[in-house]
Amino acid sequence: MIEKKALLIHNPTSGQLWTTYKPENAVSFLMEKGWKVDLVKTEYAGHAKEISFKAVKEKYPVVISSGGDGTINEIIQGLAGSKTILGILPVGTTNVLAKDIDIPSNYKKALEIIDDLNNEKIDLGLMNDRYFVLMVGLGFDAKVMNDVDSNFKKIAGLVAVVSTTPISMLNYKQANTSIVLWDKTGKKRKIKQMAYQILVCNSSTYGNSVKIMNDSQINDGLLDLLTFKSQDRFNFSKDLFAMAFITKETNEEFCEIVKASKIIIKTDPPMYVQIDGDSIGATTPVTLSIKHKCLNIIVPKKITI
Length: 305
Description:
This protein has 305 residues and is of the alpha+beta class. Helix content is 29%, strand content 36%.
């Protein structure tokens, strides 16, 4: 029996300006259901990571992320490999993980799922020494996230990202990439090509709606490496637009997808890197691996991961 005790970590800078959600309302809701809830609001970048480490040390059974995917990414740094369970309140600008595991955007419905305490173990990816739950993007998408204005994103959400994309594309050049990977059988493989974009995904959803592969799962013990075949700016832009807004899924016509347990990526020149949708100021080279069933997470009862 899991004790109904939680630390709710709220990121006040997450989400869009007009949201009516208040973390105090979430605390009241859960307390009415018999929970003991402590609320902490983050004060600076990296604070949620520090709080989550402390929560594990203090043996909180549940830590609730009140924010978006960026907040979750900070929290999992402390929760990875522990017994503490992650609950999700998807009140950020982007909530891809919540969408991927069918947690509703309505925070009251999400709280009902947390109250059920139905939990599963999922994989986490590891890029160098940092965990990720969704994906790592190298190249163009990371440049967009680096270029987008944070204040504009807070007002306009995904519209800010989309509107920044054409600007980031101007004068954007390919990089000479060298990839070494170990596939699902453990066989080593090398890939060398010019590329605008590389994706390494742990979940089955990229961005807000693009399906990676029908057999992609967040607990299969493998990463999905996507390399784009486009060798000129026009076709890359066309393929990216089609994937994001028309097909809503990857297509072997313009993407090669390989399942791997470990990946080493080097590029010349260095590529920007984003992790779980946020620019982290990093560039290639990177080493990526998978940590199988490394995180306990609350999911809807109808969902089997």
